[in-house]
Amino acid sequence: MSAVRTEEFMVNMGPHHPSTHGVCRLLLTMDGEKVIKIEPYIGYLHRSIEKICENRTYHQCIPILDRFEYVTAMSCNYVFSLAAEKLAQIEVPERAEYLRVIMLELNRIASHLIFFGTTAMDLGALTPFLYALREREYIMDLFEMTCGQRLTYNYIRIGGVSRDIPAEFVPKCREAIKIIDQKVDEYMALLNGNPIWQKRTIGVGYLSPELAVAYGVSGPILRASGVDFDIRRDDPYSIYDRFDFEIPVRPNGDVFDRYMLRLDEIKQSVRIISQALDGLPEGEIKAKVPLKFKPPAGEVYSRIENSRGEMGVYILSDGTEKPVRVKTRGGSYNHLQVLPEFATDILIADLVAIFASFDIIMPEVDR
Amino acid sequence: MNLIPIVAVELQPIFAWIYRWLEGLGLQGTLLTVVVYAGLGVMVFGVLAVLALFLVWWERKIAGHMQQRFGPMRNGWHGWYQTMMDGLKLLQKEDVLVDTRDKVVFFWAPVICFVAAFLAYVVMPFGDGLIVADLNVGILYIMAVTTFTVISLLMAGWGSNNKYALLGGMRSAAQVVSYEVPMVASILTVILFTGSLSMVDIVESQSGLVFNWFVFRLPFGPVAFMIYITAATAEANRTPFDIPEAEQELVAGFNVEYSGMKFAMFFLAEFVNMFTVSAIAVTLFFGGWQGWEFIPSWIWFLGKTFMVVLLLMLFRWTYPRLRVDQLMEFAWKILIPIAFVNLIVAGWMKYAGWYW
Amino acid sequence: MTRDQLKDYIGSKYASLMTPLDTGRFDPMFEVKADRLFEVSRALRDDENLKLDFLCNMHATDTRENFEIVYSIASITTKLRLDFKIVMPYQNAEIDSVQEVWPAANWYEREMWELFGINVKNHGNLKRFLLPDDWNQGHPMRKDWDAPDFVRMPEIQ
């Protein structure tokens, strides 16, 4: 049979492909079913957010940054506000900080639920996606109740939040996190014991901690590789140092660990939210920030722990109303960068599983 | 040639009346046979087309209810004519063709797929005597014609001149050929006890009490059924073995370049195939059309088949998909050894007479 | 190590390589000469007390007079964080690649090359990826870049 001539062929996975989560294009070199080379091509969703921000005032930047990472738009609002507050040294009222933490953690849960659903769907189980969206709906309702929006919130502003929560928010939020906490156990029961699920995920797509750190991989993926690092604890921002929560870490660095770690994180987020709801003080929700907000000249890079890893914003101010430079950093950018390292002896189905477990979304990469 | 005995007992008066009417028209000999068989073919085709439409709707409803939603609701009561409207839409659609396709292969692939899906029903006993032709090699014939499907999938993959389609076609070829082996081994277990390949004989050998159904013949009956249903899921290209059209990996696999009615033919053929494998399962393991006599035999057959179809649908909406190498491993390292051990045990028990 | 201690530590140990700047509003900010970049980055990563092994962010800024290239780095083990920047003239801007120290720099440098026109030495894979492949209208993130005008369709008589 050695006379049979075989050759490698190139497959364009994307920009329109069901499992590239948007418009990512991976140029695969394949040997039959085996992927031997991956080349990511990005830029199909490039909206030049950074350039737009240079032509806007600080307040106007927040709504456009909603689109930077629309699955966790609260984090985008927050990280920019945090940077602007650090520049102008604004003290944020207590109640606003609590509200911000509640919203950030709710949004983290919503994002992880989307991850759970889409990962299961990419591995062929279609039903969990609908279950995850059902639970996400509780959170969307809470957001809609608070800021009137379900996707791009524009809620966290420089110096505080845009409006106070309605009276029925706290009981509804408690109810929602209680339901979600129970449902996470149900999700685990649905998939973890399934031999097909285990075969598809355990031991697939191993990412070593050294490689992860070298490529700037952050967030759940880094922790699933056994690196105990979380910005919420190690470079604390807001009031995260007041809450009692654990940072889940898993040692194996495969698809299964990355999936389990996110479900564990949902449980921890539920803990944080219930503590924040208990400690929610009365008072102002917004510091006095002038409409013509002119931070003093200077530069700052602020970073937070988003559901997709480290999210950062760098602002360079020259003392005028508009920033000189806004640079956004999303976790997915680095995660997509490390993807070509996996092109050793994996099948196309594994590639889909790895891509899904990285939870890459393209607006964060292309900006 | 007397055709009357092979039609259903309940429906016999109608068939007999039609037969006499045709004879009264002056048809005789070969011409009469041709007309009768053509009529039967059209009838089977019509019944199956309706069944396939129903199955599409049913699958969508089951998927919907499993996923906390309703599924189609707008067209009629609980959307009962949704699939017909979908079919109409597909009929009206522009047939988008790729310039680089292999014209002949691309055209004939859906046709072969569609025809092959219906061929098995020539020997399918829908009810007591309700069978088009009781071939004495019935089950062998079914195994032979259902394999045509894989040729059509391979043709579709090759003819589309698309890499995803080609991968899908290759996967389906590998998969169907592998799973044919355990499937045939489990069917052989049944044939060992019936001693006949004829579908009618197989059904009749399971007559009497429920415990005469082959699935309850311990210990090899249930094992054979499990192997059969696993292999059948793979044959029908359904989750967890739907890698030929794995949506998240290959977009749509072999039918990625098909649109309009050509796509609808693949789609309907898939559902007819699902019905076929379920019907074979019922015939071989669940006593076919047998049941209490106050319910017509063809209702028994349809009811049992729908139960097996329901099982396949529950599989589909519950399980993730296997990877292609794991799929092959499962076939060759697990299913085939079990199937052959089961066959040997069954053969030995038959020889020793340890069965009832 | 707190932020002030970090500033003092670097001021004493790497005084010849890094000059502290007072523009950083939260984390310490330093300036590095372009030709010492590789040396500095390697020293920061391998220093036992710092272990700055994580490249958070890296980007260029056009201040109309010159380019500033800012590296935001952090440590996973010692939890430290600092920024340093390189200031270089507008014409023939060119930097060394730091991929050997932080492989994550690969795409950031590519993006910088594409959007600002800053050449990266020893990069190895300078290909377009954010802009269209046939882009020939300059480097859009520069301040002197104007969006190509709308082309209005002529009115039909």
Structure description:
The complex is a heterotrimer of chains A (367), B (356) and C (157). By secondary structure, chain A is α+β, with helices and mostly antiparallel strands. Helices cover 47% and strands 13% of the residues of chain A. Chain A has one domain: Cytochrome-c3 Hydrogenase, chain B, CATH 1.10.645.10. Chain A contains 14 helices and nine strands. Chain A is globular and about 80 Å long. The N terminus of chain B is likely disordered. Chain B is an all-alpha fold and 356 residues long. Chain B starts with 11 loop residues before the first helix and ends with a helix. Chain C has a domain of 94 residues: NADH:ubiquinone oxidoreductase Nqo5 subunit (Beta Polymerase, domain 2), CATH 3.30.460. Chain C has three helices and seven strands. In chain C, strands 1-2-5-4-3 form a five-stranded mixed beta sheet, with helices on one face. A two-stranded parallel sheet of chain C has the order 6-7. The radius of gyration of chain C is 19 Å and the shape is elongated. In chain C, 43% of the residues are buried. The interface between A and C is large, with 39 and 35 residues.
Approximate shape of chain A: globular
User: What is the helix content of chain B?
Assistant: 55-70%
The major pleated sheet of chain A works out as: 4 strands, antiparallel
CATH superfamily of chain A: Cytochrome-c3 Hydrogenase, chain B
Largest interface: A-C, 39 and 35 residues
Secondary structural class of chain A = alpha+beta
CATH topology of chain A: Cytochrome-c3 Hydrogenase, chain B
Extended strand count of chain B? 0
Mean pLDDT over the full residue set of chain A = 87
Short description:
With 367 residues, chain A is an alpha+beta fold. Chain A has 14 helices and nine strands. Chain B starts with 11 loop residues before the first helix and ends with a helix.
Note the topology.
The complex is a heterotrimer of chains A (367), B (356) and C (157).
Chain A (H helix, E strand, L loop, with lengths): L8 E5 L11 E7 L2 E8 L7 H6 L3 H9 L6 H16 L5 H29 L4 H21 L8 E2 L2 E2 L7 H23 L3 H7 L7 H6 L5 H5 L6 H4 L20 H24 L19 E9 L2 E9 L7 E5 L1 H8 L7 E2 H11 L3 H5 L1
Antiparallel strand pairs in A: 1-2, 2-3, 3-9, 4-5, 6-7, 7-8
Helix pairs in contact in A: 2-3, 3-4, 4-5, 4-11, 4-13, 5-6, 6-11, 11-13
Chain B lengths: L11 H13 L4 H38 L15 H11 L10 H17 L18 H9 L1 H12 L3 H32 L4 H6 L15 H16 L11 H4 L9 H26 L11 H22 L5 H29 L4
Helix pairs in contact in B: 2-11, 2-12, 3-11, 4-6, 4-11, 6-7, 7-9, 7-13, 9-11, 9-13, 11-12
Chain C lengths: L2 H11 L4 E4 L7 E4 L4 H10 L7 E9 L3 E9 L6 E9 L4 E3 L8 H12 L2 E3 L36
Parallel strand pairs in C: 2-5, 6-7
Antiparallel strand pairs in C: 1-2, 3-4, 4-5
